[in-house]
Design brief:
The complex is a heterodimer of chains A (about 325) and B (about 350). Chain A is of the alpha/beta class. Helix content of chain A is about 40%, strand content about 10%. The two termini of chain B are about 30 Å apart. The chains are: A alpha/beta (about 325), B alpha/beta (about 350).
Chain lengths: ~325, ~350
């Protein structure tokens, strides 16, 4: 049964929730960019500023027991799934109170308690393992939906095709979510593919795909919610492509807007299409939320971020013995 | 001679190779972007055209196979990877095809390709962006492996690799990109299987590769002040390995320490130790010692990361132990990395 293209009616509370998670991602990442030149965060950072609607819409559509696998650009996923913000900043600071106890850093955030099952720095490498998790779910009674979340660069890899083939063959409970931010490092999709409609990539293998605006959080959420429902009802795997745009450099705390690889018109349009501002406008116009109320929420989030940073700064580094801990369940 | 960085020396080698032979081309993720793989491919696309220096999809397995095929078809591809770790994806093509194609067909076929890869180190790059894979490549017959340390070696061995009739993996190190050295301007090839003596000495032979040579030189300077005279041998090429230079040095000092920028278990240091135990056992006055990365995945947290990598202090301290000298003073040299992120 094809997924509906209609817009689902979104309740006020849900939009507030989505907005607050988006704002938290934005504010946390602005803070990271601000701190970074001080060298307190010694881990390569891949910011998702401008892409918050995709993370928020996808993650908030999931049940807590659903599983999600991310990439090295997963700050947004961690926050939107409801991962602990203090542990997040502590991880960036390499402290042993961090979500990976200081072992993983920015590229490998994890929060299994809310279903974020890991993030990998090797492009596309979590697509097969997400597929395996979906196989497990199918073997266990299909109680959870699994989401393989990846960027437009990941569809270049062989494991993407090999995994989706297996998933459609076995009708696994999985959604392949492609966050298309236009660039794999500095390469445009059209530099790497003749077929630039990435949602069509699985067609020959029997995987249905859709492409939607990834900067409108209400749409991301609604489509994602319906897709999850379809999977829960026994439906086929799907490929969902959400179109967005990377505002910052591939890695690092700066923008690189003047570099030759950027299309200036597209950039201007993307900055204008600020998903957070769109959500603010909608809150005001559709639900009558006042500007003051929105500002108050944002202030509260800023405070929460400040507290998380303080927690990180005051947390201890791991002690030397921890170097050899957790290679195996018990030390050999 | 002129002073240039490691990256500039590599770029010069690529430029000279591409001028010399139109079959040489460069491909890899980001080779034509504004960062140009730490500057090492800067300007090549402008000078030689986009057909001879081009970006690729993120498809390591297929692109490696494509490089192999291009080599079989008469070209000389240089396939560049900014992160060593991504080569795990290409292992099938490298080991089952590139390494076998000559032998399996009775010597009738050849794969003159070069794979350039960069090892990351420090700045919390973590478990998947900092690995050193040289021992994997040494293990499988059919591939040559080079790990140049200085800018002039990097230029010479890369030119040698490009015009070599066999597949060659040239392993570079991110930390070496910060280092400058004198490099001859002209075209020259550095032969495979010839080690470089980085420092002559009589007390202990230290075999070190790539960035670990830098740490060893730092340790050597400190040890010299203590009246200890180490000899540092840099193999430059691991396959083939210059056994005679190593043997001569061991015969002179009677003590062998191997410092590799990978893990010791089944690593380069294990192989050289085994070789020395077989070939130079009677020359050794003390057991062979080895230093390498802690046998864990690389942690991000800074204090753990500092423990993960061998450093000048550990090297100096191990040398002292091998000579029954007193342990190091507290002010002994510490690892000081000039590198500052983002990567």
């Amino acid at each position: 049964m094809p997924i509906s293209r209609g817009k689902m009616r979104l309740e006020k509370e849900k939009l507030i929730e989505l907005f607050q998670f988006m704002a938290k991602i934005r504010i946390a990442e602005e803070k990271i960019a601000e701190i970074y030149p001080s060298d307190k965060i010694q881990s390569p950072i891949h910011l998702s500023m401008g892409q918050e609607a995709v993370s928020a819409g996808v993650c908030r559509a999931l049940e807590r027991t659903d599983h999600l696998y991310g990439t090295y650009r997963s700050h947004g996923l961690y926050i939107a799934r409801g991962g602990d913000l203090k542990k997040f900043f502590a991880e960036l600071y390499g402290r042993n109170t961090g979500c990976n106890r200081g072992k993983g850093g920015s590229m490998h955030v994890v929060a299994p308690e809310v279903g974020l099952m890991g993030a990998s720095a090797i492009v596309a490498s979590t697509i097969p393992i997400a597929t395996g998790d979906a196989l497990a779910s199918a073997m266990q009674g299909r109680e959870r939906v699994v989401v393989a979340f990846f960027g437009d660069g990941a569809v270049d890899e062989g494991v993407f095709f090999e995994s989706i083939n297996f998933a459609v063959l076995k009708k696994l409970p999985i959604l392949y979510v492609c966050e298309n931010n236009h660039y794999a490092i500095h390469s445009k999709v059209s530099d790497r593919h003749k077929q630039t409609e990435l949602f069509r990539m699985g067609e020959g293998l029997g995987l249905t795909g859709y492409r939607w605006d990834g900067d409108d959080v209400t749409r991301v959420y609604s489509h994602m919610r319906q897709a999850c429902q379809q999977i829960r009802n026994g439906g086929e795997p799907l490929l969902l492509e959400f179109m967005t745009y990377r505002w910052y450099e591939h890695v690092g705390p700066k923008t690189d807007h003047l570099e030759a690889y950027r299309d200036q018109d597209k950039l201007a349009q993307a900055l204008h299409n600020d998903s957070l501002e769109k959500a603010r406008v909608l809150l005001r116009s559709k639900f009558g939320v006042s500007q003051e109320t929105i500002a108050r929420w944002e202030e509260a989030i800023k405070k929460e971020v400040e507290e998380a940073v303080q927690f990180a700064e005051e947390s201890p580094f791991p002690v030397a013995e921890e170097l050899y801990q957790d290679v195996y369940e018990s030390r050999l | 001679m002129s002073l240039m960085t490691y990256g500039q020396a590599i770029r010069q080698a690529l430029t000279l190779a591409m001028e010399k032979d139109s079959s040489v081309f460069v491909m890899g993720i980001g080779v034509d972007d504004h960062k140009a793989v730490f500057g090492s491919t800067q300007g090549l696309a402008d000078q030689f055209g986009k057909d001879r220096c081009f970006d690729t999809p993120i498809s390591e397995a297929a692109m490696t196979g494509i490089a192999i095929g291009a080599a079989l078809g008469g070209m000389r591809p240089v396939h560049v990877h900014i992160r060593n770790d991504f080569l795990y994806l290409a292992m099938d093509q490298l080991f089952n095809l590139a390494a076998k194609w000559r032998y399996m067909f009775g010597g009738q076929m050849k794969v003159p390709m070069v794979v350039r890869v960069v090892i990351g180190r420090s700045w919390g790059q973590g478990a998947q962006h900092s690995q050193s894979l040289q021992s994997f490549f040494m293990h499988v017959p059919g591939i040559k492996v080079a790990m140049p340390t200085t800018p002039s070696d990097a230029k010479g061995i890369l030119l040698s690799a490009i015009f070599n009739p066999d597949p060659v993996i040239v392993i570079e190190h991110r930390s070496l990109y910060e280092i400058s050295g004198e490099v001859p301007e002209s075209y020259y090839e550095l032969p495979f299987g010839r080690a470089m003596i980085r420092r002559e000495g009589r007390d202990v032979t230290i075999v070190a590769n790539s960035y670990m040579v830098v740490e060893c030189l730092k340790a050597a300077k400190y040890l010299e002040e203590q009246g200890i005279d180490v000899e540092i041998v840099d193999p430059v090429s691991l396959v083939p390995l210059d056994e005679s230079t190593l043997l001569t040095s061991i015969q002179k000092t009677g003590r062998l320490l191997i410092v590799d920028c990978g893990w010791t278990t089944c690593g380069v240091s294990a192989e050289i130790s085994a070789w020395a135990a077989e070939k130079a056992f009677d020359e050794l006055k003390r057991p062979i010692r080895r230093l390498g990365n802690a046998h864990v995945p690389c942690p991000v947290s800074q204090p753990l990361e500092a423990l993960f990598y061998p450093n000048a202090k550990q090297i100096a301290s191990t040398v002292c132990e091998m000579l029954d000298r007193n342990p190091l003073e507290e002010d002994a040299p510490q690892l000081v990395s000039k590198f500052r992120g983002p990567f």
